[in-house]
Amino acid sequence: MDNCKKYKDLILTNYIDGEMDTEMKQQVDSHLLVCPNCRRFAEEVNHFLVASFKNAVRKNVPEHLWLLVKENIEKENRLNEKAGNFIHRLMESLSFPALAPVLGSFVLLILVGSLIFYNQQMKQGKEKEQVEYLVYLLGATEVSPETENNVPETPIEKYFL
Amino acid sequence: MQDISDDVLIKASQGDLKSFEELYKASAGFVYNVALRIVNNREDAEEVTQEIFFIIYHKLKGFRFESSFKTWMYRITVNYSINFAKKTSITRNKTAEYEDTSIAGTVVGDVQKGIDKEHREKVIEDLLNIINPDQRACIVLRNMEGLSYEQIAQTLKININTVRTRLKRAREKLLGVRKRVDYGQL
Q: Which residue in A52, A59, A73 is closest to B54 by CB distance?
C-alpha cells in the first residue's frame, strides 16, 4: 500500500509529464503491470488531467488587440514627444547664446548699481566724518557759556565786572 | 511561440513600431492564450495582453540580449497574469463554489461522452477556476504550452521541486472533484 502511494505520487507528476529517467519509468511500468489499482489511477490521470487540457482549443487573438496596443504606444509616444519638446524649448531658451545678453545686462546692472551704492555710502560716510570732525574742532575752540559769562576776558570786562 | 530574429528584436528595442508589430504577431498567440487560461476570463485576458505588450515595449529597451527572449517573455506574461488573477481572486472565489458544483456533474460526462468543443472549453475554464493562480500557471505551462519542469522553474524563477509540488497539489485537487462525482457526493 505504501508502495502504491509512492507510485501514485510519481504517476501524478514525473510519470505523466515524461520527466523521468528510463530506469525509474521501467520501475513504474512494472508496478502498473501487477497493480490494477495504480493502473486504473494512471489511466484516470492521463485521461482526465492530461488529455482534457492538451486538447483544449487554442484561441485566436482578437484582431482589435494590436490596434489597441499600437494606439497606447503611439499615445504615450506623443505625450513623451510633447514633454520632450517642452523641456527642449526650455533648455534652448536657457542655453548660453540666448542667455548671454540677458545675463550680461543683469551682471552689468548689478555692478553699476553696487558701484553707485558704494559711492553713496562712502560719500555719506565721509560727510559724516567731516561733520563730526568739524563738530569736534568747533567743540574744542568753543567757549562754554559759563566761562563766557563769568570770566572777564578783556580789561574793560575786567573793569566793569 | 514563433522565433523572432535578433534584428527585429533590436529594432523593436529602439522603438521601431513596425518591428514591434512583427514581434507582436509572432508572440501574441502565446501571450493571449496563457493570459486567458491564467486569468480565466476573456475580457480580462484582452486587458492583460494589452498591458503585457505595453510592458514589453518599454522593458525591451533594457533587455539584455544574452538571456533568452522567450524565457523573458514567458516570465513577464505569466507573472503579470498571476498577479492579475490574484487581484481578482476575491470576486472569483465567490463564484468558485457555485462553479465547483456546477462543473462536477459535467466533467465525467463531457470527457467520456465527448460533447462538443464549446462545452468542453467551459469545463476546462471551470476546472482551472478550482485551482489557485500559481497552480494554474504550472498546469497551463506544462499541459497546454508543453514546457518542461526546468523551463517552468526558469520562467517562474522557482525551484523544480516547487513546480512538481504545485502540479501535484493542483492535480490532486482536480482529481478530488472527479472522485466526489464518482462517489455521488455532489
A: A73
